[in-house]
Specification:
This protein has 283 residues and is an alpha/beta fold. The chain contains 10 helices and 12 strands. Strands 1, 2, 3, 4, 6, 7, 8, 9, 11 and 12 form a 10-stranded mixed β-sheet that branches.
Amino acid sequence: MTKNFKIYAILSIMLIGIAFAGIGCLERPDDDRSITVRGSDTVLPLSQAEAEAYMDKYPDDRISVGGGGSGVGIAAMIDGEINIAMASREMRQSEIDSANRNNIYPIEHTIAWDGIAVVVHPENPVKELTFDQLRGIYNGSISNWEEVGGEDRRISAITRDSSSGTYAFFREVVLKNDEYRPDALAMSATGGIVQEVSQNRGAIGYVGYAYLDQRTHALSLDEGNGYVPPTAESIQSGDYSLARPLYYYTKGEPEGLTKDFLDFVLGPEGQDIVTEVGYFPAR
């Protein structure tokens, strides 16, 4: 009798364990509620703020955010390493073709708008430039601030590296696809541009609007219709020429946490965060 009781007890414990295991199987695994977002350094501070707000609201979910540039994020998405690629430019046809060969069909989501500000050291007397002057500075045909109304000082042109969507956008819109001057100093992150310009009176660089602070001065630009400063009003109205959309790219239609997070970013709470961080709501 004692032996039978022991066998019964063991079987009962096993059945209880199996029952609890079955309940666990009904729950979504942790991996299903964890995603990675990577790419554009311009979009990075926005995505970090969005992810923090989302995880405060849904503490069981995990969203990992990293930078590296638009090209890095897109490549990681194509390779299946991440769930969302952040980009400050549209995907190139070569990238779309590469994704399609991997049976990935990316979908573009505009999550916000941004303005690119051209910045100089606060003590630089030059406060405005025409697009022609800016193009000359970055293609190398203008090398001294004296040539654009400033002091006799060599120009140090700072740019992002070629993996950056901002690099590509600036080259297309401002340089008209000219090559960057060979002595331009390329930075792997936007923060590096801010730091270099703040420490070098002869430097000039370009950054996303959200990176503006007292360490640099943002120039007014004239594309042909008068000088316009990079302000919230001028960017949203379209009067400022260097405005652009910011994107999330997903591997096809988003599902699970990817969809939930994207819906949050595009919803009222997420778009309020867009404004708080220093960008402009998607339109």
